[in-house]
Design brief:
Elements (H helix, E strand, L loop, with lengths): L1 H10 L4 E5 L4 E3 L4 E7 L9 E5 L5 E4 L9 E6 L5 E10 L5 E10 L1
Parallel strand pairs: 2-8
Antiparallel strand pairs: 1-3, 3-6, 4-5, 4-7, 7-8
Length: about 110
């Protein structure tokens, strides 16, 4: 019984289910919409999305007001052709931080 009570919290870690740009995709620049959908609610106020440019520089992206509790949205502007990486760090509904990255190419 105790194990069953603890099991739902193990499932609540945030896992990226879908992203735009998609993992390892090519998109047209210079402006790129950023959309991340997770398997659970995430706290937009305590979550962060950062863009790593081809030269290695980092830029924090401002997050829009959440349209749904499992989605984070932003906009990256003025991107030149090259390989970029979105680094996300989110606070999930279970209180745990989860992180990951989405590499993509701007053409």
């Amino acid at each position: 019984m105790l194990l069953m009570a603890l099991a739902p919290s193990a499932w609540a870690h945030a896992i990226l289910m879908e992203s735009k740009p998609a993992l390892n995709s090519s998109v047209k620049g210079p402006d790129v919409a950023v959309w991340l959908r997770f398997n659970v609610r995430v706290d937009g106020g305590r979550s962060r999305v950062e863009l790593v440019a081809p030269d290695g520089s980092h830029q924090s992206l401002a997050l829009a007001k959440q349209s749904r509790p499992d989605i984070l949205q932003s906009q990256a502007s003025g991107l030149k052709p090259g390989t970029y990486k979105l680094i996300w760090n989110v606070l999930a509904a279970d209180g745990h931080m989860s992180k990951g990255e989405v590499p993509f190419t701007v053409t």
